[in-house]
Design brief:
Low-confidence stretches: none
Order of helices and strands: HHHHEEEEEEEHEEH
Structural class: alpha+beta
Largest sheet: 7 strands, mixed
Strand content: 15-25%
Oligomer: single chain
Number of strands: 9
Radius of gyration: 21 Å
Strand order of the largest sheet: 1-2-3-4-7-6-9
Distance between the termini: 48 Å
Length: 219
């Protein structure tokens, strides 16, 4: 019984990770699916609670310990941690960007775009060239339809990229010519009322991905 439950839990976690990813058939579709975002958010809480309960049962009832159940629980924990790190951490973004670089370069070669599409391991909502024709900004989104932008943009630039309304951004180098731009939404909208702020200039740098995300969330 414990092994069967562990197997079902592993399958549920794998399904959740796929449904949350950009690799679903509907990820590039702009039909709003914020209901799916909400469902997956609640499901994540339930799956974590289930996993903790299974671990507790395994620890507190030695007679029910089975090698296969342990293997499945360990695999579930490792998959969850790896998936979270790949999607949320600075190292994960570095790996995703390096894997996506050829697709992003091909996307930039086609010019500015409002067509949501997958590019390697990222989902691009729009492509813009706000300050230079040689410096594309790839604005990113979640795979849940329109209105799911995340105030993050990947920027390809050999030097620190400049931005209009630079005070609303923090910039962090990911690797080589790739940068992450973190946008403070409220500050950006406030600066749009100031024509002088529209001139391209250099934004302050974020010391870490966590600091950049804190800047985004503050907006």
């Amino acid at each position: 019984m414990a092994t069967a439950r562990a197997a079902v839990l592993f399958a549920c976690v794998a399904a959740w990770m796929w449904l949350w990813s950009i690799h679903t058939p509907w990820a590039a579709d702009l039909t709003p699916r914020l209901w799916l975002y909400d469902v997956l958010s609640y499901a994540r809480v339930l799956l974590v609670a289930w996993l903790l309960a299974e671990v507790a049962l395994w620890c507190w009832h030695p007679s029910k310990r089975r090698g296969l159940a342990l293997l499945l629980l360990g695999g579930t924990i490792l998959a969850g941690i790896a998936g979270w790190a790949y999607a949320q951490t600075g190292l994960g973004w570095r790996l995703r960007v390096l894997a996506s670089a050829p697709a992003l370069d091909a996307l930039a070669a086609r010019g500015a775009s409002d067509l949501r599409q997958r590019a390697g391991q990222v989902l691009v909502d729009t492509v813009r060239f706000p300050c230079s024709a040689g410096t594309p900004w790839f604005w990113l989104g979640r795979p849940h339809g329109a209105g799911s932008g995340i105030n993050l943009a990947l920027v390809s630039s050999d030097s620190t990229p400049r931005a209009p309304f630079a005070g609303a951004f923090r910039i962090r180098r990911i690797d080589g010519r790739w940068w992450m731009a973190y946008q403070h939404g409220a500050r950006y909208h406030a600066l749009q009322g100031n024509p002088a702020a529209a001139a391209c200039s250099t934004s302050a740098e974020a010391p870490s991905h966590r600091a950049g995300m804190a800047f985004v969330e503050a907006g």
